[in-house]
Amino acid sequence: MKKAGGTLPFRPQYAAGPPILPAAGVPAGAIASRMLPFDNWQKAILAVALAGVLDGLDGRIARMLKAQSRFGAELDSLSDAISFGVAPALIMFLWTLQQAPRYGWYAALAFAICMALRLARFNARIDMADEPRKQAGFLTGVPAPIGAGLALLPMDLWIASGRDEFRQPGLVSLWLIAIAFLLISSLPTLSWGKLRPRPSVRLVLIAAVGMVFAALLEDPWWTLAGLFFVYLALMPVGFVAYARVRRQRAARTAPEPPPA
After folding, report:
1. What pTM, to 2 d.p., does this model score?
2. Helices (H), strands (E): how many in the chain?
3. Highest-scoring range by mean pLDDT, 46-55, 92-101, 202-211
């Protein structure tokens, strides 16, 4: 419902909570950039991953404490723009794209701009009514932390395998542009709230999570790469699932045929 002034009320379920965790994400992104002159690529990726963990915890803690605020939402988006937009773009440029500065810089810039556009779109919809995808439990486009991880996937594979094929500036530029498109696209993607396993498989899922955590400790780079490949494989599943939801909605809202 609209207020008397004609604007929609603030919708706290979209907002971040107390600004402690978003503020902690800013130095995580800055530390990732600080590692670059020393060619410490592994610590740079881990810093971005830490910012992603803090971003994921922020919303859940806010809902648990019922402490959502518009200030927290704005600070969270600014922190995400640094940690998931600027930092990965600089990392990829200094890692390989500077070998082809003519188009490598524009690829990194396109990724950073599209990340900022995605976050701006998210903030612009805070005061708006739920869109159809959100109502059905889907996200619009690839979320910011996942987008940052996908952008760093070539470096992850390079660290894990040691093969220079993953460091080709032309291929990395095309990859960054593709991820930038996914960030601002209208593709429906699965959200955590949509993944609700049946009770019969929950124990198996808990065991799988434990195995993934053990794999992260044993071989983090191949495990991270595998998780992102699983996410990419699930993207068509989200598209098909949302198409089914749209058909069901259309069937419910279709007018009844007139009586004979």
Report:
1. 0.81
2. 11, 2
3. 92-101
Structure tokens at 200: 């019969």
Query: Where in the chain does DSSP place strands (E)?
Result: 138-140, 188-190
What one-character-per-residue DSSP string does 113-171 give?
HHHHHHHHHHHHTTTSPPPHHHHTTEEES--HHHHHHHHTHHHHHHHHH--GGGG-HHH
Beta-carbon contacts of 2 under 8 Å, excluding residues fewer than 6 positions away, are 8, 9
The alpha carbon of residue 130 and the mean position of all alpha carbons in its chain are separated, in whole angstroms, by 19
Chain centroid offset of residue 124 CA: 17
Q: Tokens 């990965």 map to which residue? A: 88
Residue owning tokens 């704005």? 74
Distance CA(83)–CA(114), nearest Å, equals 14
**Cβ atoms of residues 184 and 141 within 8 Å:** yes
CA distance linking residue 62 with residue 79, whole number of Å: 16
Phi-psi region of 7 (alpha: psi -120 to 50; beta: other; left: phi over 0): beta
- Give the pLDDT of residue 206: 82
Cβ partners under 8 Å of residue 31, min gap 6: 43, 47
Residue matched to tokens 């922190």: 79
**Left (φ > 0), alpha (ψ -120 to 50) or beta: where does 6 sit?**
left
**HSE-up (13 A, CA, CB side) for residue 3:** 8
Q: What is the pLDDT of residues 231-240, one digit of tens each?
A: 999 889 888 8
d(CA 119, CA 213): 29
